């Protein structure tokens, strides 16, 4: 489908909202079918890796990385990571070791209930030095169920059959495919972790769900999150930082109803409302039934592969701006040398035929912000991965691990497909006061 111009898209949705096409409804909470897994087994600390980044003198480094460690069948990732010899996992671990985050979210990491894959990746790859890098110990790990591959029992994609990846609460061939895992050097406040896997899309006021497409039965049960939304409080010295993790559905593979674009918009809106708190978040309930969002004084970082570029691609024109324009959020605008000039000649008009990027986008500031290279899928480089701290955290540095050709580490991201992933690791350094009033840093 040829994408609409952004102005036209915005007009369509504004008209639909004005006409009452998106009517909010409310329903009881559906309890989660699986308990999340938290593991915290402290181990010996290791030296900092020599990250190719700035401002490591103080603060907390938080990162997100879509690692493409998803496999075609349940158990395949567990098997791949059981030994320390998987080439892709070695390369992914090397990127993490080179940037040395204190807290890192991995998207597209298959979930298993016994969290074998998460534990094996930690011990066999992250803790083991890769290609001359120092290993990193992450004593605290969080993994929880995902909506991917959980059957809904209806024909969501209208192909005439019920069952399969596209007829699940989130696209997936098996439960947990394309899941998430969080690694941390700092303790997790386990009793305060909140998950929103079962929050129903229809319970968001003014949502963009295409009800006519889904019909009343599906509309009443369809969950908002294509994977899950997590609020994982991390304790750093005497302070708590809420790690708000998610991986909204890509706004593609749509028909004229644009169901995935709409869902992506609302999955991002969920965090915008959650961090606003108060009345804006009063409709939100977690998997335990608790309601509401964050308090105005709480510190947080929104992170993940949010699948929305502010300038290009097929996301809703207002999707990511809901966060980037929030008065509670700082956009550090992480950059890299490798993304600049990476767009091949003639690619701009192919990305969005109705809104080609300005020439400056090829090598200028916008180009340096890109975090993923989708040439193999025909969309080119985009900015879709974000680490967005709250304004009560001071940003001291940021970056995207995308070395330019000839720079150290460039081989990890070169090629189509690369040895690692079509996404790049994005990191941000923040400073926060300790109980004594100084800066804190994890080791």
UniProtKB/TrEMBL annotation:
Pfam families: Exo_endo_phos. InterPro entries: Endo/exonu/phosph_ase_sf, Endo/exonuclease/phosphatase. One of its GO terms (molecular function) is endonuclease activity. Residues 63-423 form the Endonuclease/exonuclease/phosphatase domain. Residues 1-27 form the signal peptide. Keywords: Endonuclease, Hydrolase, Nuclease, Signal. It comes from the Bacteria. This is Endonuclease/exonuclease/phosphatase family protein.
């Amino acid at each position: 489908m040829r994408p609409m111009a952004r102005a036209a898209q915005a007009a369509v949705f504004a008209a639909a909202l004005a006409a009452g096409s998106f009517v909010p409804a409310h329903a009881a909470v559906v309890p989660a079918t699986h308990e999340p897994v938290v593991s915290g087994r402290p181990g010996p600390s290791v030296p900092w890796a020599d990250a190719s980044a700035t401002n490591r003198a103080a603060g907390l480094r938080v990162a997100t990385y879509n690692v493409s460690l998803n496999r075609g069948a349940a158990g395949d990732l567990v098997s791949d990571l059981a030994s320390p010899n998987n080439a892709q996992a070695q390369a992914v671990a090397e990127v993490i070791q080179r940037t040395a985050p204190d807290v890192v979210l991995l998207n597209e990491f298959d979930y298993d209930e016994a969290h074998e894959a998460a534990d094996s990746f930690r011990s066999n790859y992250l803790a083991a030095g890769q290609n001359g890098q120092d290993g990193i110990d992450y004593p605290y790990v969080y993994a929880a169920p995902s909506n991917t591959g959980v059957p809904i029992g209806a024909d969501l994609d209208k192909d005439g059959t019920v069952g399969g990846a596209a007829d699940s609460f989130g696209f997936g061939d098996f439960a947990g495919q394309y899941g998430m895992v969080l690694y941390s050097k700092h303790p997790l406040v386990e009793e305060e972790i909140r998950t929103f896997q079962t929050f129903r899309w229809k319970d968001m006021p003014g949502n963009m769900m295409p009800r006519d497409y889904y019909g009343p039965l599906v509309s009443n049960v369809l969950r908002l999150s294509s994977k899950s939304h997590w609020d994982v409080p991390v304790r750093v010295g005497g302070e708590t930082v809420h790690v708000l993790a998610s991986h909204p559905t890509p706004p593609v593979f749509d028909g004229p109803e644009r169901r995935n674009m709409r869902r992506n918009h609302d999955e991002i809106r969920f965090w915008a409302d959650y961090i606003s708190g108060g009345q804006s978040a009063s409709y939100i309930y977690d998997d335990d039934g608790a309601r509401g969002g964050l308090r105005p004084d709480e510190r947080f970082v929104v992170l993940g592969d949010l699948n929305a570029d502010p300038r290009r691609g097929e996301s809703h024109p207002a999707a990511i701006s809901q966060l980037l324009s929030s008065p509670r959020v700082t956009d550090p605008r992480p950059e890299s040398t490798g993304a600049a000039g990476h767009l091949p000649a003639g690619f701009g008009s192919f990305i969005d035929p109705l809104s080609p990027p300005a020439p400056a986008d090829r090598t200028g500031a916008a180009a340096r912000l890109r975090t993923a290279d989708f040439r193999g899928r025909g969309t080119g480089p985009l900015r879709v991965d974000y680490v967005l701290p709250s304004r009560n955290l001071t940003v001291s540095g940021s970056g995207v691990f995308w070395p330019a050709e000839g720079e150290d580490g460039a081989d990890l991201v070169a090629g189509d497909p690369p040895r690692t992933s079509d996404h790049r690791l994005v990191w941000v350094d923040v400073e926060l006061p300790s109980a004594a009033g100084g800066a804190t840093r994890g080791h």
